[in-house]
Write a structure and sequence with these properties.
The chain is an alpha+beta fold. It has 2 domains: 117 residues, Nuclear Transport Factor 2, Chain: A, CATH 3.10.450; 126 residues, Nuclear Transport Factor 2, Chain: A (Roll), CATH 3.10.450. It contains 8 helices and 13 strands. Strands 1, 2, 3, 4, 5, 6 and 7 form a 7-stranded mixed beta sheet that branches. The longest helix has 22 residues. The relative contact order is 0.14. The N terminus is likely disordered.
Length: 291
């Protein structure tokens, strides 16, 4: 029995609170992610994704689209998509989390040649039907071996869980911080935005590059891109405990004169609240350029 099944069983027995404590750690997400990858490997991408996607779960293809809608007309892929988590984090409330790590793709299950590699992001959300994928995105990049150990850093003085009536206000706070991030990025560039808002262990995922880990290295990496963009926020969601959240949208290349802004990429950011001040910090930043 997997973690989700055990949680449901304990809930039926009236032990749901104990179940959350037992599984309130990144090991739950690692198990979910590995089960998800195994389902895709066994059933194919279409069937595997539809099994795990939330009804409103998003895919970046490369624009953000509802996964169920995307797969309605998508044929089953005969290739083999594989991935493995290298880092995971779960909210204190046990209702939201994410994993990230390397992926690889073969055009045929019988072909040993790897056609594409990169890094992925999966955001998981606990629903009435169990854990589901709320957002899935990936960038192409150098081949990296699948890790045997998953990195999961500690809570870092997380805030007390929020009362229910405060959660809407906290969501607005994160949207405000996300918009502030976008304004700084538009004025000064991505490097300045990450320097101001990034967590000290922030992960940056960009096409063609390995994952960049750590605020100092991320600022150095992003400084090479002088392009100014404006991020349009399409959605924000936070955990019940208010210590983890994510946002997504599209970036516009700022026009000049009569040239209108043009959407040039999709993006997703995972945010975490750390320290006694409860400051929102970017845990992971992913962007995918459009063709």
């Amino acid at each position: 029995m997997n973690a989700t099944g055990l949680t449901k069983l304990l809930a039926l027995c009236g032990w749901a609170g104990w179940a959350v404590q037992v599984w309130a750690g990144p090991e739950l997400l690692v198990t979910l992610e590995r089960d998800f990858a195994a389902a895709v490997a066994a059933q194919g991408a279409k069937s595997g994704f539809l099994q795990y996607l939330a009804p409103d779960g998003l895919l970046f293809r490369p624009r953000p689209v509802v996964g169920a809608t995307f797969f309605e007309t998508a044929p089953e892929d005969v290739g083999l998509l594989e991935w493995a988590p290298s880092s995971a984090r779960l909210a204190e409330s046990g209702d939201l989390g994410f994993t990230t790590g390397p992926w690889r793709y073969r055009a045929s299950r019988t072909n040993a040649t790897i056609q594409a590699t990169g890094q992925y992001l999966t955001v998981w959300r606990r629903t009435a039907e169990g854990w589901k994928v709320a957002l899935d995105a990936g960038v192409g990049g150098p081949s990296m071996s699948f890790p045997w150990r998953v990195d999961a850093d500690g809570p870092e003085d997380a805030d007390e869980p929020l009362a229910g009536w405060q959660q809407t206000q906290r969501g607005r706070d994160l949207k405000f911080v996300e918009e502030a991030y976008g304004r700084r990025s538009a004025r000064e560039g991505e490097a300045a935005a990450v320097e101001a808002h990034g967590h000290k262990r922030v992960r940056v995922l960009r096409p063609g590059a390995p994952p960049v880990v750590g605020r100092t290295d991320a600022v150095r990496f992003l400084s090479a891109n002088a392009r100014k963009t404006r991020d349009a926020v399409q959605g924000v969601m936070i955990s019940g405990s208010g210590d983890l959240g994510y946002a997504w949208g599209e970036s516009e290349l700022l026009g000049s004169g009569t040239t209108p802004p043009k959407a040039v990429r999709s993006w997703a950011r995972v945010w975490r609240r750390s320290g006694w001040s409860g400051t929102w910090r970017v845990a992971l930043d992913l962007a995918i350029d459009y063709p």
